[in-house]
Amino acid sequence: MIESILAEISQMFSKHPYLKSLLASVIIVLLLYVINRIFIASFKRNKRHGSESNLITRRINLYTKYIAVLLIFLLWFSQLQGVLVSFLAVAAAIVLALKELIMCLTGGILLRSSNTFKTGDRIEIENIRGFVIERGLLATKVLEIGPEKNSQQTTGNIITFSNNLVFANTVKNESYFKGYSIKSYFFKAQNSYQIESLEKFLLKEGSAICEGYMEEAKRSISSFCVKEGIIIPSLDAKTKLIIDSENNFSILLRIPVKNSQIADVEQRLNRRFLTFTIDQVPQKV
Question: Starting at the edge strand that comes first in sequence, how are the strands of the sheet with 122-125 ordered?
């Protein structure tokens, strides 16, 4: 009789291998429960302080759960291995199929969480420059500035770029100073004798442009720098001499500008530069 029952049980386990793992899981849970109760009862019999006893009880319960989960996972690992492999294969296929979409979505979340830029900011990423007019989770739209590198005019073109660009490119935000930017404008000198006069001319023009809002710009930019803990830059108009590989001379003019007037300032300086003629330059002695 007993032999026939054991034979039937063995046959049942052979047909359904998971039943053996299920029975072993039940035994593990019951055994750990009994051990848990024994440990807790022994600590309570030691008449420890209430707070310490409660802490030890919680730790015992926690460790018991960890051990139970680990043992059951190891017990079922062989049965779950095929399912896990299939699940990982499906997950990998989904990731490969939706790679670009996932990267765009991740980039959008990164831009929002880091507050890299907001609508209305003037930004540059890769070879794209412009004002942000729409910021989505998958893509960003900007009103293009250009097309030349040093141009400050908007072209009227709307450029949409995927947010995954932030993973491989640096984002330059020129609108962090609360409506102001520190801009650089380049002017080519015709010869070396023109440098001193051209510098004085550009400094005068640059100072005249930002004279009306210089104090406001200083307060705005200083407030931002103090808040962020960075060095407050000098905002006075400054020039810098640049000599390229072909020994051509250029003057860089650096001044604070309202973001809404960057293009207008560029045009004003270009027109004023045209009035600067060689007759204004001292002749060589």
Answer: 154-162, 139-145, 128-135, 122-125, 171-173
Residue 51 token pair: 């707070």
The residue among 68, 97, 126 that closes a domain is 97
Distance CA 138, CA 163 (A): 6
Mean pLDDT of 21-48: 78
Range of the domain at 208: 180-280
Residue 86, token pair as written in the block = 């299939």
Rounded to whole angstroms, the Cα distance separating 269 from 253 reads: 10
CA–CA–CA angle 11, 12, 16 (5° rounding): 120
Termini Cα distance of the chain: 128
pTM above 0.85, yes or no: no
For 63-92, the pLDDT digits (tens) are 888 888 888 887 777 666 666 777 778 878
